[in-house]
Amino acid sequence: MNNHQTRFGDVPLHIGGEAYPSASEQWIEVTDPADQSLLARVPKATSAEIELAVRTAHDAYLLWREVPASERARVMFNYQHLLKTHHDELAALLAQETGKNLADAKGDVWRGIEVVEQACAIASQTLGETMGNVARRVDGHSWVQPLGVCLGITPFNFPAMIPLWMFPLAVACGNGFVLKPSEQDPLTPMRLAELFAEAGAPKGILSVVHGGAEQVDALLAHPDIKAVSFVGSARVGGHVYRSATSQLKRAQCFVGAKNHMVIMPDANKAQVLSNLVGAGVGAAGQRCMAISVAVFVGSAREWIPELAAEFAKVKPGIWHDPEAAYGPLISPEAKVRVEGLIEAGIAEGAECLLDGRFCDVPGYPVGNWVGPTLFRGVTPEMRIYQEEIFGPVLACLEVASLDEALALINDNPYGNGTSIFTSCGAAARKFRHEVAVGQVGINVPIPVPLPFFSFTGWRGSFYGDLHAYGKQAVRFYTETKTVTERWFDEDIPSGPNMTIQLR
Ligand code: NAD
Question: How do residues 46-71 score in pLDDT, each as one tens digit?
Fold first, then answer.
């Protein structure tokens, strides 16, 4: 195969602020999830290329760390402006390689831009602390300094937002950065890197390398990589966390999810139905904050048939179709996996009110389509409850009380996001206080925090201490240096002895 048979040609690496064609002999095909046509080929970077990418970022960091924070912030202002100017172009590119509809693709870019806006305010976020006279004529102060080169490993499902969670803040803090984006949709991250260079980021401060497990392992082992940010599946995230920390590196790994929405009988029914459809099947359910379990409390279960009717109206389609509610799954393998789980749900005795297998989108016969799928009568023992499906599949459970709903959620290994729909303040307060999940929505189905907060998944959805973006990410990408300072000057009269006698 050669360049001419793909829509976007061979994807280069990004080293030294520009495209760097790979000499690799191993390439991965990037396909259009709607029709399987070849979009591009992406290389598995060689070890020499990985070495060059890290070394270049490290050399750039040695100069960049001396640049005043206000000047670093100016690059971020430029970058925010460029991303906004190229917002629609980025969204169209992202939609082609992920299959997301245009509205979702725009949201993906926009949520990333918001993190760049946080990076514009880096100076005030990296102030140290001071205290005079920590002992007599001794002062204490702390300084916030960058770490060196940080590594980002990102998943397929948000190829703009998730890289933008990482490198703008890390670089604004004074670090170099190496990004290893998903091999399934590398085109958008590459365009983000080009625009970063165009915004005035110093040459080399951001490297992008491509590949899979082997390249990730080589990067994790590199002595100049000081911190690792990972977003992806629990299986890979566990490996990355263990590998990074066993090599005494700082790591934060955002992994899988099984997000429950609790529906109380006093909730606004129209809001519940429309929000469950959007949160359950939007982006084909390929969001780590998607709602995949609906827990109906008491008489709220009577709304399930109406929910099925709403689900039946939802139609997937091609990214530029304004009527398409969502797009195809990312790959044929993902479609086979999701359809296998639907089959397992039926075999294990759940009632399938709407079966998304055999989904047909006219004009795109070989796309990775799965239609909206709704189960009721699901129990915690079933695979469709236990496993992250990452598809447009919603499992409905019925319980008698809010306490029962809370026990269910708190027993689940994952703790990324959850929500409750109710008109009762006391129920909402109890839920907010007792639920062991890191991101909670009250009448908000997908409670993704804005960047003045941090993205705070808990338990099996997150390995590490400090979370993504917000104040926590600034701490993750920096080190605190504490100085205790005393000056001797015998010529300065010391004045009366003010020692206070404590009894
Ligand atoms: P994935 O784990 O397959 O891949 C993530 C990254 O790891 C990719 O860059 C990939 O190339 C790399 N990788 C794959 N196998 C590897 C291996 N054996 N060793 C080292 N690196 C490897 O994830 P995905 O399918 O791209 O993304 C979907 C998953 O991401 C879902 O589980 C979803 O819940 C999760 N996710 C979580 C969050 C969150 O914030 N918690 C956000 C988005 C996605």
Answer: 999 999 999 999 999 999 999 999 99
